[in-house]
Amino acid sequence: MKRSSTLKKVTVTAIALTLTAMVLEIIFVRALKLEYASPVFMPVRLITLISANLLGGCIFTKVINSAFLAKRSEHMLESYKKLRFPVLCGGAVLIFIDCIKDAFLHPETTTVSSALIFTYLLLAGICSLLTPKDDPSCDRVGYIGGAVVCFVLSVFAILVFTLSVIGDITYLFNR
């Protein structure tokens, strides 16, 4: 029997969380006549936000795997895995903080976090720097230029995230 990949397991989990949130929304909003913005509904909004970010992460992971990591040497994959783990862990913490903040302060939105965009742009930049080392025949200037663009955009995404958090903290304390 073929084992499922971690990406497939996470994707199935994200879809299951989305379906669970939809059922809970039907129960709370339609049957119990609660307001979507009520504090009682916050856990359901949190589940929705986490599942949306999980699905976004699965999509970004699939794109990076197929664009950069397919048919690469074992040495490059090992280098990428060493760098990927701390980036994903830090990104996951930021994404979870953003999900909690949005579930509590912005009940009307269900979006992927700018921290998710930051995380995967950073990973794409790392892949762009590692690829020329693995394949000397590739366009080094193009990959390095792509890495620079990814890093600049990741800085912009983390800046948006930081400003959003600062703005929401200011709003929360001035209420």
Describe this structure in words.
The structure is a single chain. The protein is an all-alpha fold and 175 residues long. Helices cover 81% and strands 0% of the residues. The protein has helices at 6-31, 42-69, 74-105, 114-134, 140-173. The longest helix has 34 residues, at 140-173.
Search tags:
single chain, 175 residues, mainly alpha, flat
Question: How would you describe the shape?
Answer: flat
- Estimate the helix proportion, in percent: over 70%
- Return the structural class: mainly alpha
- Give a count of the beta strands, DSSP E runs of length 2 or more: 0
Largest beta-sheet characterization: none
| Number of H/I helices | 5
Rg, please? 19 Å
Distance between the termini: 57 Å
Low-confidence stretches: none
Proportion in β-strands: under 5%
Q: For the residues shown, what is the average pLDDT?
A: 90
Report the order of strands and helices: HHHHH
SSE layout and pairing:
Blueprint: H1 6-31, H2 42-69, H3 74-105, H4 114-134, H5 140-173
